[in-house]
Amino acid sequence: xxxxxxxxxxxxxxxxxxxxxxxxxxxxxxxxxxxxxxxxxxxxxxxxxxxxxxxxxxxxxxxxxxxxxxxxxxxxxxxxxxxxxxxxxxxxxxxxxxxxxxxxxxxxxxxxxxxxxxxxxxxxxxxxxxxxxxxxxxxxxxxxxxxxxxxxxxxxxxxxxxxxxxxxxxxxxxxxxxxxxxxxxxxxxxxxxxxxxxxxxxxxxxxxxxxxxxxxxxxxxxxxxxxxxxxxxxxxxxxxxxxxxxxxxxxxxxxxxxxxxxxxxxxxxxxxxxxxxxxxxxxxxxxxxxxxxxxxxxxxxxxxxxxxxxxxxxxxxxxxxxxxxxxxxxxxxxxxxxxxxxxxxxxxxxxxxxxxxxxxxxxxxxxxxxxxxxxxxxxxxxxxxxxxxxxxxxxxxxxxxxxxxxxxxxxxxxxxxxxxxxxxxxxxxxxxxxxxxxxxxxxxxxxxxxxxxxxxxxxxxxxxxxxxxxxxxxxxxx
Length: 478
Prior knowledge:
EC number: 6.3.5.-, 6.3.5.6, 6.3.5.7
Order of helices and strands: HHEHEHEHEHEEHHEHEHHHHEEEHEEH
Largest sheet: 11 strands, mixed
Domain Amidase: 25-456
CATH topology: Amidase signature (AS) enzymes
Low-confidence stretches: none
Radius of gyration: 21 Å
Protein name: Aspartyl/glutamyl-tRNA amidotransferase subunit A
CATH superfamily: Amidase signature (AS) domain
Helix content: 25-40%
GO molecular function: asparaginyl-tRNA synthase (glutamine-hydrolyzing) activity; glutaminyl-tRNA synthase (glutamine-hydrolyzing) activity; transferase activity
Organism: Ewingella americana (strain ATCC 33852 / DSM 4580 / CCUG 14506 / JCM 5911 / LMG 7869 / NCTC 12157 / CDC 1468-78)
Number of strands: 13
Number of helices: 15
Number of domains: 1
């Protein structure tokens, strides 16, 4: 494997700016890795090699002329297929938009382009993002590089796969209920869901022509996925900041993204909850989680206390909020033509007889969870949980039906993730370790409202104490 593929974005950008490497060399290495591994892993549903090479050549030309380039200049990036990219097919994993080409960039794509990133293509996601796994009706299913019989998680599935397989050092994901953190955990990479409003969304459903091409406005975040914490901070320095197209976006300037990764976390008050007090969590996940917690207590000097926030399982409220944020009228109009080609769980959601009470009850429960979390976090600087209740499981399942000897719904393995979408708090998933069978397990770090800096600081400290980027999935040794 080309050694360039192991370099992080910081190193690549520096070498390209110093003209010790060319952007074309770096892009060529990524494209060759894709060509070798894509027949097995299916991370990219729409590769864009011509666009990538044209962007790389443009960066090299600017440097040759002595012109200034952006902070991501020449660094390859993958973009999730739910995020509109001008001139590139953006299918949302659905036959409905099999041939749809966006006419403008979403805000984050606009920003990474302006920063000089090289777009390798669009990565596979479940249909319209309505799943915690990666398969969809339109494309080959993405496979976990640590075990190709297993799911990589979702919905930013292909982005997680591309990172773990060293196809790129940066990827964009979206997170409406854990969809950055889930594949980060299952693929052994880092994923950050910053505070609500940090990274602006441009809801893709800009008129009635495109039902379903939209974000879950009250739940969703766009976030960086990377192989190092510093690279996530670098991406945040590019994509964070307000924009008039997003009414929820918030002012910038209160977070030094790169500086946060250098902070000492000794003395932080850290709450630890392995299961919220009610969730089923696999014993092998609990074991890895306990070891990760001990790093914070014994090596990083944090004050650890085992405590639950105290809310009840808000899963039903979350599903109602997803439906409320959905373009139900527009998507239901698609059912007569496309319903037999849609994912069954999506059809079930669209055809359910949702009531006003379902939605108002969900809003009320979200307020209650947010209030309980606010009160709980007054006592702590950070909250640790497992990212997911289970390690990667076989492809083409929505989730296991038994966890810790308990019968569960097939979405209960996500119980530790989605509450942070209800509250909008910053949350990250960082590689915590491996199961006895060699599958990655993620550690979730949750900060106080708007305290993204502490999440990054704690992530960087844990990464330094327990590095993971030198570990590579078996698919790379074939």
